[in-house]
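Shall we go through a protein fold together, starting from nothing but its sequence? Please make up or recall a protein chain and show it to me in full. Go ahead whenever you are ready, and we will take it from there.
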Amino acid sequence: MSEKTFESQSTKFTEKDKEFLTSYFRLAETIADFIGPHSEVVIHSFENYEKSVVKIVNGHHTGRTIGSPITDLGLRMLSAFEKTGEVTPKSYFTQGKDGALLKSTTCILAGEGGKPIGMFCINMNLSFPFPEIIKTLMPEMGHSNIGVSENFHASANDVIEQALNHAITDIENDASINLKGKNKAITKQLFENGIFELKEATAMVSERLGITRHAIYKYLREFKS
């Protein structure tokens, strides 16, 4: 790599570039929360290589903070991107300065016109005992109820049907709701859960509950108001 100063290699950012890079901050927090405390998630900005780290979660694994510089590997990846346009993230193993074994992946982030503006990096610290790492990925022992319900389906109609079944069961088991109010209560639960954002929902709910679409629309207008 030719000997150039960091300043001469830095990239001039537009406001859109800055907004695009910032939009990844929440994703970094989400991924770090998902993988667990043994992983570091970092966003680098190519606007200033000497202070490229603009977002970092769990930075204690590498001892870095916001304002830390880009790595030598990061510069090599940027150089390769500029030559080939390759953005596919690749996993690799490396060592932290304290000798910790890290499994990492890095993806170049492109801004306006495909210009490279930063990197999104994940570093999992494998130096901890493996059972300790696995424990952070599993629900607590003895808890049969995980706490969050999510159903995975291949079609939108399956999503609607599953939600409708749950709503009907919930309302049928609620003794405080009289027979006359059950259809409205079922429709309200579906509305609050966002099911009517799916285009076939009104038709399917209408048919299943034995009421007209007009009645469904009337309920929805009432709920929205």
Notes: Residues 156-224 form one domain. Residues 156-172 form the longest helix (17 residues). Residues 13 and 68 are 19 Å apart (CA to CA).
